[in-house]
Design goal:
With about 450 residues, the chain is of the alpha+beta class. The chain has 16 helices and 19 strands. A hairpin with a 5-residue loop joins strand 8 and strand 9. The chain is globular and about 65 Å long.
């Protein structure tokens, strides 16, 4: 091996073998960075991480921290001259304290594995991104990942109580607490959540667990138009019904799922709204009444197998769309009351540019994923994406609800934040990482 000589002194396994390096160069976004990393390090413990970071700091070598590589904005891509710090081997659930409702984990723990481990104690880890079976806790924290259940239980930030973080110079700090309440000092935990690896390396997390709810009711409501489905999800809020999830899939998305999974979702509807209620029979009955007002068909089930099949269709939506061609995956959020307006405008953008846009949404909190099938139409796709970002801001929303900024949305971040806010965030970055070594060129 001919990589950076100091890696041999860190105690961490590492390699510069070309096939391994190539496998750590990209994430799921499709972004192609310039050049290739110098090497990949595979620490198994905090002290090995610290040694790698210290060596990088002393030699001014950039570091890109990586979990499962499921990022959708280019945040975990690694180009020329960097060391990839792969934390996937730090994958232990150190402790589940059921009486306290707390779990302590390493960053490489797979999200679904933590949820299943918590379930053995009658608890759940609530954040559940669509990639929960492959994405890691550390990556979820780095992007402040959302998920299907966030309509009721919040995003990753709402589940993070404290963090262990290795700073750019190798110092180890602990932020937050192991209690469910606490307001001592500035909220550094919240600052690291969603920072996309630009402020420090997350090596441990103290996470909030919640009680498993009573058996849930899952409702599948079909509609003649995607705007009707969006309006129905808003009507739930107007009726003061709080679903666990409210997932909207438009016509193009249903077609993609049917072609990929052999289902027949599109046959029944131009849009599908999947709603899950864990507030009891009375709330489920009220939800059925609200959703049925403009629906062409409404079905409900408490059967775990039927529920799993519906949710599997939703979680498989992105892989199904990826099989149609290269996807340009967008991630905007708008005020929930303007969701129907947003989906109508996205449809108009698709027609204007004569491109396919598959829109799916966490409708319960106004987070939309308009996925543009780019293929040979990158110029049109990029122009359409710009219009979608502008639409989000015009409706009082944001250019990213849960995927982060990475490299794909840096130009739009400054427009959303404004110059003073953006400059202040750059100053914070400089304070934590004075030489710009941590995930350079990302987020800000």
């Amino acid at each position: 091996m001919t990589g950076p000589f100091w890696l041999a002194d860190t105690g961490a396994e590492w390699t510069d073998e070309p096939s391994v390096v190539a496998g750590h160069r990209l994430d799921r976004s499709g972004v192609q960075p310039h050049g290739s990393p110098l090497a990949v390090a595979f620490p198994r413990g905090v002290e090995q991480v610290r040694e790698v970071v210290r060596g990088a700091y002393a030699t001014r070598t950039p570091i890109v921290t990586r979990g499962a590589g499921t990022a959708l904005t280019g945040a975990s891509t690694a180009g020329e001259g960097v060391i990839v710090l792969d934390l996937s081997r730090m994958d232990r659930i150190r402790e589940i304290r059921a009486d306290d409702g707390v779990a302590v984990t390493e960053p490489g723990v797979i999200t679904a594995q933590l949820d299943r481990a918590a379930a053995a104690h009658g608890l759940r880890y609530a954040p559940d991104p669509a990639s929960l079976e492959i994405s890691t806790i550390g990556g979820n924290i780095a992007t402040n990942a959302g998920g299907l259940r966030c309509a009721k239980y919040g995003v990753t930030r709402d589940a993070v109580l404290g963090l262990d973080v290795v700073l750019a110079d190798g110092r180890l700090i602990r932020t937050g607490r192991a209690t469910l309440k606490g307001v001592a000092g500035y909220d550094l935990t919240g600052l690291f959540v969603g920072s996309e690896g630009t402020l420090g390396v997350i090596v441990g997390a103290t996470l909030r667990l919640r009680p498993l709810p009573e058996p849930t009711t899952t409702i599948a409501a079909s509609y003649g138009a995607v705007a009707d489905a969006a309006a129905a999800s808003v009507a739930l809020a107007g009726a003061r019904i709080q679903p666990v999830l409210a997932e909207l899939l438009d016509e193009a998305t249903l077609d993609a799922i049917d072609a990929d999974q052999g289902t027949h979702l599109r046959k029944a509807a131009s849009a599908l709204l999947i709603v899950q209620i864990d507030g009891g029979a009375a709330e489920a009955a009220r939800a059925l009444e609200v959703l049925g007002t403009d629906a062409t068909d409404v079905r409900s089930t408490a059967d775990p197998a039927e529920t799993a099949a519906l949710l599997a269709a939703r979680r498989g939506a992105l892989p199904a769309i990826e099989r149609l061609g290269r996807p340009l995956i967008e991630d905007i959020a708008v005020p929930r009351s303007r969701l129907a307006e947003a989906v109508r405008e996205i449809g108009a953008i698709a027609r204007r540019y004569d491109i396919t846009i598959c829109t799916l949404a966490h409708a319960g909190d106004g987070n939309l994923h308009p996925i543009i099938v780019a293929d040979e139409t990158m110029v049109a796709a990029t122009a359409a994406a710009d219009e979608i970002f502008a639409l989000a801001l015009r409706l009082g929303g944001t250019v990213t609800g849960e995927h982060g900024v990475g490299v794909l949305k840096r130009a739009w971040l400054r427009r959303e934040l404004g110059p003073d806010n953006h400059d202040l965030q750059r100053q914070l970055k400089s304070l934590f990482d004075p030489y710009g070594l941590l995930n350079p060129g990302k987020a800000l």
